[in-house]
Specification:
Elements (H helix, E strand, L loop, with lengths): L4 H8 L6 E5 L5 H9 L7 E5 L1 H10 L4 E5 H6 L4 E11 L6 E5 L10 E5 L3 H13 L6 E5 L3 H7 L2 E5 L1 H8 L1 H4 L3 E4 H9 L3 E9 H6 L1 H20 L1 H9 L6 H11 L1 E4 L1 H13 L21
Parallel strand pairs: 1-2, 1-3, 6-7, 6-8
Antiparallel strand pairs: 3-10, 4-10, 4-11, 5-8, 5-9
Helix pairs in contact: 2-11, 12-13
The protein binds ligand ISJ.
The ligand C=C(O[C@@H]1C=C(C(=O)O)C=C[C@H]1O)C(=O)O binds next to helix 5 and strand 10.
C-alpha cells in the first residue's frame, strides 16, 4: 500500500453542498429567484418536493435545511431548530391554502372531508376552524393533492398549491365549488397572521455544522429580500410560464404571502400551537450553542 494515498483520496473528495428543500409551488418562486440572482444557487443543492415530503426528508437526514409544514414542525420540534426571520405566512387571505367544498361549510356536518396529505397544516387548521363553527362529525380522510380526484370521493378538501391559487383568482375555474381561504378565516378568528410553513434544520446538524446553517440562512434571507425588491420584474418573468398574470403574481408574492417571521407571526404561530395541543410551545430561534443570534 502506498503511504498517503488514502489521505490524498480524502483530500480530493469533493465537498458536498448543503441540501436545501423547497416546495414545488409558486410560493417558493421568490426564494428561487433570489437564490439565482445572488448566485447562492451555485452553493446549495436545491431539492423540490411537497411540504409533507420535505418534512419527512429533513427528519430522515436526506435534507439539511427545508421549508416544512408548521404542523410537522410542532410535532417534531425536539429534533428541529427554527430558522429565524423567515417563513411562509399570511396576515389575512393567503390565496393558496383553502377549504374547497361542494357545500357551504355549515353543511359539512356528517360529510366526508378530505385532507390532502401534502398539506398537513391546512388540514389541522381546517379541523380547528370547523370545530369552532360547530360543524360536528365530518369524517376526515386522507387524500392525494389531486383536488378534482379527491372531490370524487369527498364533499370537501383542505389543501394548498397552485390549483388552489387558481381557484382563488378564477371564479370560472372553480365552477360551483365554495372556496374558503384559510389565512382569512384564521385572521378573522384570532386577529393574527397564520404561519403555514417554517424553515428548519435538524438539531444535530445545527450542532455539528453551525457555519453551514448560518450560511444557508443568510442566503435565504438575502434571496427573500432581493426578490421583494424586484417583485414586479419577478412577477412579470414568472407569469410568462404560468396561467396567472403578472399583477396577480405580484400581489400573491408581496401582499398575500409574507415571508417574514417577526413578532406578529410568532404570536400567530404560538396561538396555533396552543390550539393544537402544544401548550408548552415557546419560540426558540437560537438553537443549540446559539447557532443563531437571539432575536433582539
Ligand atoms: C402558504 C402555503 O403554505 C403551505 C402549506 C403547508 C401545509 O398545509 O402544511 C405547508 C407549507 C406551505 O408551503 C402555500 O403553499 O401556499
Amino acid at each position: 500500500m502506498v503511504p498517503g494515498v488514502e489521505i490524498a483520496d480524502e483530500e480530493l473528495r469533493r465537498p458536498v453542498r448543503p441540501r436545501v428543500g423547497r416546495t414545488g409551488f409558486l410560493n417558493c418562486v421568490p426564494l428561487f429567484w433570489g437564490l439565482a440572482r445572488t448566485a447562492a444557487l451555485l452553493s446549495i443543492d436545491l431539492v423540490e418536493d411537497t411540504p409533507d415530503a420535505l418534512a419527512q426528508r429533513l427528519l430522515a437526514g436526506d435534507l439539511d435545511v427545508a421549508t416544512v409544514p408548521v404542523a410537522d414542525y410542532l410535532l417534531n420540534r425536539d429534533r428541529l431548530v427554527l430558522l429565524p426571520g423567515i417563513a411562509t405566512s399570511s396576515d389575512g387571505p393567503v390565496m393558496s391554502c383553502a377549504i374547497v367544498s361542494k357545500v357551504p361549510i355549515v353543511g359539512l356536518e356528517g360529510r366526508t372531508f378530505a385532507i390532502a396529505s401534502s398539506s398537513p397544516t391546512c388540514g389541522r387548521l381546517a379541523q380547528l376552524l370547523l370545530k369552532r363553527q360547530e360543524v360536528e362529525g365530518p369524517r376526515y380522510v386522507t387524500s392525494s393533492e389531486d383536488l378534482r380526484a379527491a372531490l370524487q370521493e369527498a364533499d370537501a378538501i383542505a389543501l394548498t398549491g397552485d390549483e388552489v391559487l387558481r381557484y382563488a383568482v378564477d371564479r370560472a375555474a372553480r365552477g360551483g365549488l365554495h372556496v374558503y381561504d384559510l389565512g382569512a378565516l384564521w385572521r378573522r378568528w384570532t386577529g393574527l397572521p397564520f404561519v403555514f410553513g417554517v424553515w428548519a434544520v435538524r438539531r444535530d446538524v445545527a450542532a455539528r455544522a453551525p457555519h453551514m446553517v448560518r450560511e444557508v440562512h443568510g442566503a435565504l434571507l438575502a434571496a427573500r429580500d432581493l426578490a421583494m425588491t424586484e417583485a414586479a420584474e419577478l412577477a412579470r418573468r414568472a407569469a410568462e410560464w404560468e396561467v396567472f398574470d403578472a399583477v396577480t403574481l405580484e400581489h400573491y408574492f408581496t401582499r398575500a404571502l409574507d415571508y417574514s417571521l417577526s413578532d406578529r407571526q410568532l404570536a400567530g404561530l404560538t396561538e396555533f400551537a396552543r390550539c393544537t395541543g402544544h401548550e408548552d410551545f415557546t419560540v426558540d430561534t437560537t438553537g443549540p450553542s446559539a447557532v443563531f443570534a437571539p432575536i433582539t
